[in-house]
Design a protein that fits this description.
The chain is built from eleven helices and nine strands. It is α+β, with helices and mostly antiparallel strands. The chain has a five-stranded antiparallel β-sheet. The protein has a two-stranded antiparallel ribbon with strand order 6-9. Strands 7-8 form a two-stranded antiparallel sheet. Helix 2 crosses helix 3 and helix 5 runs antiparallel to helix 7. The radius of gyration is 20 Å and the shape is globular. It binds adenosine-5'-diphosphate and magnesium ion. Magnesium ion binds next to loops. Keywords: ATP-binding, Calcium, Calmodulin-binding, Kinase, Metal-binding, Nucleotide-binding, Phosphoprotein, Repeat, Serine/threonine-protein kinase, Transferase. It catalyses: L-threonyl-[protein] + ATP = O-phospho-L-threonyl-[protein] + ADP + H(+); L-seryl-[protein] + ATP = O-phospho-L-seryl-[protein] + ADP + H(+). One of its GO terms (molecular function) is calcium ion binding. Belongs to the protein kinase superfamily. CAMK Ser/Thr protein kinase family. CaMK subfamily.
Length: 312
Amino acid sequence: MGQETKKLSDEYEITGILGRGGFSVVRRGIRRTSSGENENENNDVAIKTLKRIGPTTPLGKTTAATSMGFPTRKQVSISDALLTNEILVMRKIVENVSPHPNVVDLYDVCEDQTGVHLVLELCSGGELFDRIVAQARYAEVEAASVVRQIAQGLVAIHQSDIVHRDLKPENCLFLNQTKNSPLKIMDFGLSSVEGYTDPVVGLFGSIDYVSPEALSQDRITTKSDMWSLGVILYILLCGYPPFIAQSNRQKQQMIMAGDFSFNEKTWKSITSSAKQLISSLLAVDPHRRPSALELLNHPWVNGDSAKEDPMD
Ligand code: ADP
Ligand code: MG
């Protein structure tokens, strides 16, 4: 981890834009190296800049708050709370999880008047979202590989008491362009660390993936991520989401009632093992959902029920 005062432009050359979010811009960059040093090393990075929007806290204060824990809600605007939160979670990941094949790595943090720059491992294979759109439906063995990789990442972060809270195909990136590229969980902007006060209470991720307990403002736990993974698996296998409604209000009611079905023609050709797995992940009662570790031991996920899988 670099010094807090490190200047971004001294250390990295920005080469393009990778994506944009509500409070952030993500750019591609190359680490400047002193002559002859690590010539063969991969110096490509992604730089996520979290902008300060609300009343800014003094630079040093944010840094101190970051290393000690969450500042109190009164001291910061929502944008600053999110910013502080993401850095705190990423630091915890660096301490407890990295390097992990299924979790994006944080290399460095730089800070200036614009905000905070998280220097991240570059994942140049695009979002899982784009591959789903391009492919429409996944074969079961391919879907199992995606679920296995996300579950492996979740095991690691859940063991560190981190709940992702915004797990969706837009927040899973492939490391490279190959078909068998590793898949990485990223965007810990809305994540929470169990045991800390949650500065983003009431805010949750995309409605399509959000759990019933998040909607009803109940306690959000690692099992809430398992619900989101259930939604992802459903979409992978049929190409459309489990909860479709005319209005968000109606969709919320369906989610809270666990009101989904497999009654379309599409699901006829899908194994009962896959359907049972989805039903267990989309259980309204979080206690009835498998943990990430339990999921990895499920035959449909670990490949025991798909020995014909050429990738395994
Ligand atoms: P936000 O919190 O604003 O949603 P994200 O962290 O999800 O921001 O990043 C926004 C987009 O930028 C991502 O969906 C992805 O397309 C791109 N991106 C983010 N991190 C990386 C990375 N490490 N490598 C490549 N692209 C990235
Ligand atoms: Mg995102």
